[in-house]
Amino acid sequence: MDKSITLPPDEIFRNLENAKRFAIDIGGSLTKLAYYSTVQHKVAKVRSFDKATKEAASDKLYEISVQEEVTARLHFIKFENAYIETCLDFIKDHLVNTETKVIKATGGGAHKFKELIERKLGLKVDKEDEMTCLIKGCNFVLRNIPHEAFVYAKHADSEFRFQTTQPDIFPYLLVNIGSGVSIVKVESEDKFERIGGSSIGGGTFWGLGALLTKTKRFDELLQLASKGQHTSVDMLVKDIYGGSYGSLGLTGDLIASSFGKSATADKEFSKEDMAKSLLHMISNDIGQLACLYAKLHNLSRVYFGGFFIRGHPVTMHTITYSINFFTKGEVQALFLRHEGYLGAIGAFLKGAEEDNPNQYSWGENYAGSSGLMSVSPDMNPMQRARSGTFDMLEMDRLERQLVNLPLLQDPSSYIPDTMDLTEDALAREYWLYCFEEALDGVVKRAVASQPDMPEAAERAEKFRQKYRHKLQTLRHQPFAYGSLTVRSLLDTREHCLNEFNFPDPYSKIKQNENDIALKYYQKAVKSLEELSWEERQFALVRGVLAGNVFDWGAKAVSDVLESDPEFGFEQAKRQLEGSKCLKTTHPGFLLQGPPHKCALFFVDNSGVDIILGVIPFVRELLSRGTEVVLASNSGPALNDVTNGELQILTERIAAMDPVIQAGLREDRLTLVQSGSSSPCLDLSRLDKVLAQVVRERQTDLVIIEGMGRAIHTNYYAMLSCESLKMAVIKNSWLADRLGGKLFSVVFKYEVPAGKPSQGSAAVTPS
Amino acid sequence: NKSKSFPWFGMDIGGTLVKLVYFEPVDITAEEEQEEVENLKSIRRYLTSNVAYGKTGVRDVHLELRNLTMCGRTGNLHFIRFPTQAMPRFIQMGHDKNFSSLHTTLCATGGGAYKFENDFRTMADLELLKLDELDCLIRGLLYVDRVGFNGHPECYYFQNPSDTQSCVKKPCTLEDPFPMLLVNIGSGVSILAVYSENNYKRVTGTSLGGGTFLGLCCLLTGCETFEEALEMASKGDSTNVDKLVKDIYGGDYERFGLQGSAVASSFGHMMSKEKRDSISKEDLARATLVTITNNIGSIARMCAVNEKIERVVFVGNFLRINTVSTKLLAYAMDFWSKGQLRALFLEHEGYFGAVGALMELLKTTEDP
Lengths: 766, 368
Description:
Strand content of chain B: 15-25%
Order of helices and strands of chain B: EEHHEEEEHEHHEHEEEEEHHEHEHHEHEH
Helix content of chain A: 25-40%
CATH superfamily of the largest domain in chain A: Uncharacterised protein PF01937, DUF89, domain 3
Subunit structure (chain A): Homodimer. Interacts with PKM.
CATH superfamily of the largest domain in chain B: ATPase, nucleotide binding domain
CATH class of the largest domain in chain B: Alpha Beta
Helix content of chain B: 25-40%
InterPro entries (chain A): ARMT-1-like_metal-bd_sf, ARMT1-like_metal-bd, At2g17340_3_helix_bundle, ATPase_NBD, PanK_long, Type_II_PanK
Main location (chain A): cytoplasm
Number of helices of chain A: 25
GO molecular function (chain A): ATP binding; hydrolase activity; metal ion binding; pantothenate kinase activity
Strand content of chain A: 15-25%
Largest sheet of chain A: 7 strands, mixed
Keywords (chain A): Acetylation, ATP-binding, Coenzyme A biosynthesis, Cytoplasm, Hydrolase, Manganese, Metal-binding, Nickel, Nitration, Nucleotide-binding, Phosphoprotein
Largest sheet of chain B: 8 strands, mixed
Distance between the termini of chain B: 13 Å
CATH architecture of the largest domain in chain B: 2-Layer Sandwich
Oligomer: heterodimer
Number of strands of chain B: 17
């Protein structure tokens, strides 16, 4: 193996300049390095012009400034032990201003490399208990990474079935299959216990396998096993019974005695067959023990990890099979996407206890993370080369803690995404194509958003390459970042844009649109007030929907907006006129009867959408005595209105409109940030403050607007209060899927079962 | 005569071994002697005057139950075994000796009763009475325990199992035997929770059994028989092959209360080529035996805890002449349960299924 490789610093060991708090986990063959660093990147800020300077600063509503912001990021890098020296040298050379004195170390190889690390880095190696690190890391990923855990199903459409994040991750069983097996019951962050184990583990497979087949490497043994037939070596029930053992329900193909035939048959066995038999023997045995422990301790969540598992489809399959067999399907074997990093993450967390990383929420950065690679023995050479070099995980510290929306009917079964593209090959094909097609436009928009920066074009080009590469990866490995969804594709794009310092490509467009829309505000309100109550209800809903047409994220719309800058609210309304559903369903029921206590409104786009569509609707709610909480994005995504922008907009509207003004003054209209910077909405990861406000105000109506938040996500979300999902379908493929046409409308009003219904209607596009 | 006509056989055809019990009446009257057909006499003479049959058949003379009264007759019960591979020859012999002319039913249990049923019929014109192996196992076990082993208890345990110096075998009886966890270690392993003679359930099983031990030993050491494998194992040192807790942690793993001498990874040292080149066949045989035995002990113990049963009875031919395993099982039950569980063993290890089959013969009413 080539130990002297050149490391590309742009891709591996990034942000070393500010790195601190190192941790290292050295296993039998792989090293995992962790460090904390800060990332300086640009963010777009909006600020109201001072009254004094306003005259001078053109007629713009607010100013946009790009500022530098420093955020925290965790870096995890996995590489083969053979590169350890090269990597340590590289780190030493690139470490600039660190005050770090200590490196936390764990893993079986920690003592072996202790001297080397201390010499190379000049850091004192501080060893941490392996199992403690493993559990800490496991808790961390389960809490912070949605779709961390998955069920493996070899023959399903998608081999990986990702699990939704549980509101409470405890208690669980972790079965760590290293050279031996440890079975650990984890009851809380700090409370765990090794309740059992077995000496028959990965070391047995490897050691015994090496003796039997004269094959030295673990991977090669797995490869042999995947080609073998265990039935020539094992004694099956049918070898003893001639068929099944019916009265006990044991089928003929069941293994009665592992290696049972090798005692009597006078023949040579193939390496493949013996390896396969050994693999079955060990997997079944571990699965059986895990089930016995799970049953004894009444636990249903069982995670498997350790080098025996580490992404190997062969072992995941045999373990899954064994668990299914022994529990008759009652317990599912769960695996983890970042299983290999647990020890390093845990060691890092041990070293960072004074920073208390667990008080924050963290998010996987799709731009900087390699994602799950298949290490199937049958995989193609490209993938194999990849897995043999460097693998990265990067996690951003989020500014706020993220929690469930308290109004979710069943948080443990909530799935934000409407469509799982990992399982739906046709949909996957379409959306990957769609995002690839849209890439030119995004690049163009990104460059245009930074006219004063000459290197913007170059950065934009890098962004293009990065995102295109992500799309290619996802084409081959849709499961790389958990379930592939429209949301994850959008979020990945946002992460990549941020990575190359395009924090808000739509800032100018948003500014412009907000300006224009604001000019029409009073007129729009006035014409609504002239309508009868009933007519007004229709008009308000129509207004929100027409406003929702203005979505730069939708190609069908951005094409129109690009070619016709005059395209306005009235045209949009006319565009929707064909939608019969508006006429067949009475939107009035929603605002009939006793007023709601408080409505939570998740808003979508800037400009016409928020100003001429949403605010008049909000106004109506306020007039009825309903308090309103407007939830908008914390950070930019496409032309979605951000909390910062919305603050300014509402101030300006309040200056023109006494109803809004009174609402703000009396604290009946509140603006909160969602905690998200995505065009979609994950109701299980919302700003803690938002959740608190929702609870305090006894929110009894949730309105979700827009394609990203109400169709791509949350279309099937079940809430414990009344809810309304409104969107215009601006994608003809999706419209077709949902049985409608482009610019069809979704107006889905739902009352939870058991609540008095004020009339319910789920309107699908006509 | 009210009782069944002779010969009385019970047969258990397992995956590796065929176990045969034969009741030799010693109270034959002169009248009976005269009436006795020639081939019945010759069968009796052949079985009782030999201790080995062909190349592979063996009579376990030391297990013989003498002066036993069954079904009103007195006689000796003989215990014979031969490899299942020899079944075709055995059936051929049944044909040659014209066994089908005898007025008896051949009661058979074990998987082979099903597998070879047709061969018995076509090759030897014999109709088997097929019996469930677990029914037979429990019935036979309870019977032998009841009648005792020629005046001594059938059952035994190990006193001071945790101390190799003072660990001694102690006889005992299975008085009030229920509930018991019955662990039958043949080629594979079945674990039963037994609440009464007729009320039991199969809790689980494992494919890592006697067949695995012998199979792996043959592949790893080139040995050919169970005896050979055990002989090698008795001389080997498994710690050259297995990775112990202390090999990884330098001593005890205190965080988890694991002793340094505990096996962390069976065959774990064999991941390294150097170690592979430095071990003996005896070490490998010993490691295989220890691995399989500990694993069975571990599963049995978990089942006992899950089923809330404190008495664990180990039977099956894997335990034959295998004190390494019996002591290890006794130790494992005692140590890991902190003295809560007791491992019990029976002298007639693997023959209870065959005894149970014989008892079924004596119970059947349809006497020709």
